[in-house]
Amino acid sequence: DTKTFDFKVADLSLAEAGRHQIRLAEHEMPGLMALREEYAAAQPLRGARIAGSLHMTVQTAVLIETLVALGAQVRWASCNIFSTQDEAAAAVVVGPNGTPEDPQGVPVFAWKGESLPEYWDCTEQILTWPGEQGPNMILDDGGDATMLVHKGREWEIAGAVPATTEEDSEEFGVFKELVRRTIAEDPKKWTTVAEGIRGVTEETTTGVHRLYELAKTGDLLFPAINVNDSVTKSKFDNKYGCRHSLIDGLNRATDVLIGGKVAVVCGYGDVGKGCAQSLAGQGARVIVTEVDPICALQAAMEGFQVARLEDVLDIADIYVTTTGCYDVIRAEHMTKMKNKAIVSNIGHFDNEIDMAGLAKVPGVTKTQIKPQVHEWTFENGDSIIVLSEGRLMNLGNATGHPSFVMSNSFSNQTIAQIELFTKNGDYDKQVYVLPKHLDEKVARLHLGALGVNLTELTKAQAEYLGVDVAGPYKPEHYRY
Ligand code: NAI
């Protein structure tokens, strides 16, 4: 029987190339593959209808096919306009057993280089299911799908979408337009979708931040699991993932020699720590900017100079923002940078670098060097190179984090989906992290592939420490 379903990707003929990459990625994703085996018979996600909004990469393809292997139905979009790998998207639509003429896989709505209206259309598509039943789970990265459900419902109940104002970013204006259109088409759309959702699992720092805000004001509509703050996510993906993919993005975009250059890392949280290490590993002289005295002291102890951005503009060659904050690098900074300085962001949203302000500098011109690499030339003839229009450059200019580290993140995602879907009644409309024994389980699933031999506690040693021989080994407040 031929399945027909709706989807929108760049080119299905890329599926074979995508499938080869997925096959190699599976080998590097032992956590996900172990979960497929563990839950093959039980099918804990049977009945789950997951709306996924997360960078549509090769690694995400392995996540999607794991969710399907556990019984879920899935619709997918990317959570960034530049982050899709078109061959991965094609392979997921075609599926392991389909052909481009007869796709048998999963509906994906994602391609590299979406416009903002297309981006929000794709996000709407994952929440708009054919037939009677809508989605009952969200898997989110950055919180856009969750925001669409919450704001859509709020504005639907209020009877109108607030007018778009000067203060709105371009993106938020486009978002409002989408909600306006969808409510006009179906005045109960978002109320109905919201009622069906049992929970959301959120991938990243920025999305988690949004969820805690909603919970604080009592506006969170369903339970949420904060996947980001599993130790095996933020202390691995954010740190070691960025340690790998930051310089990958820099190299693919510009191929400038990093050694000997002065590189500024704005923010020294988990992402900043990985970025600083990766630049230092290439021989760059790294300067960190921070607002938090603890993180600033950590950077200093690692041997990095900690300074204010204003004070290093005349010496720095490479900039990367990692703060999750906004307006960190502003036009007044960019106009004072060295000629051909490279400016990039690896934080979730594009507002860390004030791109709108840059475009308004009198006399500035923009030249495309290649897709996602632009030279902005000022009146005096000096220019700066901006990567991915200020959007996260490791996914815009390269292919994001490598499989092995994403296997950790996505094992947490899979376990969190199972947890929220199968034990929904145990959770209130709050934000939760996974229990430590599951965090330790995710780590355990990745040890064998690296040839790690764990030491086992004796019973007496375990008693001495006051822990179980099988773990968990640390109290909740331990920071790793
Ligand atoms: P974090 O909270 O651990 O670190 C952010 C740091 O920036 C904090 O130490 C904070 O004090 C500092 N900061 C805030 N405002 C600042 C400012 N104006 N100037 C200088 N420093 C400032 O967060 P984490 O986990 O490092 O994530 C950072 C961002 O990266 C988030 O948006 C997150 O969603 C995103 N992310 C991106 C990934 C990627 O692959 N591109 C992977 C993981 C996270």
TrEMBL record:
Residues 238-400 form the S-adenosyl-L-homocysteine hydrolase NAD binding domain. HAMAP family: AdoHcyase (MF_00563). Its EC number is 3.13.2.1. Its cofactor is NAD(+). It catalyses: S-adenosyl-L-homocysteine + H2O = L-homocysteine + adenosine. The keyword ATP-binding does not apply. This is Adenosylhomocysteinase. It comes from Branchiibius cervicis. May play a key role in the regulation of the intracellular concentration of adenosylhomocysteine. CDD domains: SAHH. It is an enzyme of class 3 (hydrolase). Pfam families: AdoHcyase, AdoHcyase_NAD. The gene is ahcY. NAD(+) binds at residues 204-206, 238, 267-272, 290, 346-348, 394.
